[in-house]
Design a protein that fits this description.
mainly alpha; Rossmann fold; 3 helices; 2 strands; elongated
């Protein structure tokens, strides 16, 4: 019999600024704990995340910083990705 498959995701981080530990404790740590528990129970788990890269605040802050919205979110996506990698 094949393992039960479970897909888990958390709220996508908004790519308009750097993350802080409040983000981790409020959104990502619970999902990580749940994924680890499901793996311990023998389930096939995929825990994924991405970036929320759309919205008026991004457009406004990009303009204030002299960047395009894509340049703005690319910067914060990279910062946030590095933050998550340090936690691993």
């Amino acid at each position: 019999m094949s393992k039960e498959k479970i897909l888990i995701t958390s709220g996508l981080p908004y790519a308009n600024g750097p993350l802080h530990f409040g983000h981790i404790a409020g959104a990502y740590l619970p999902g990580d704990c749940y994924a680890r528990f499901q793996r311990l129970m023998g389930r096939d788990v995929l825990y994924i995340c991405g970036s929320d890269e759309f919205g008026v605040p991004i457009t406004i802050n990009a303009e204030l910083a002299g960047r395009t919205p894509k340049e703005h979110v690319d910067i914060f996506h990279a910062i946030n990705k590095a933050f998550f990698e340090k936690l691993a």
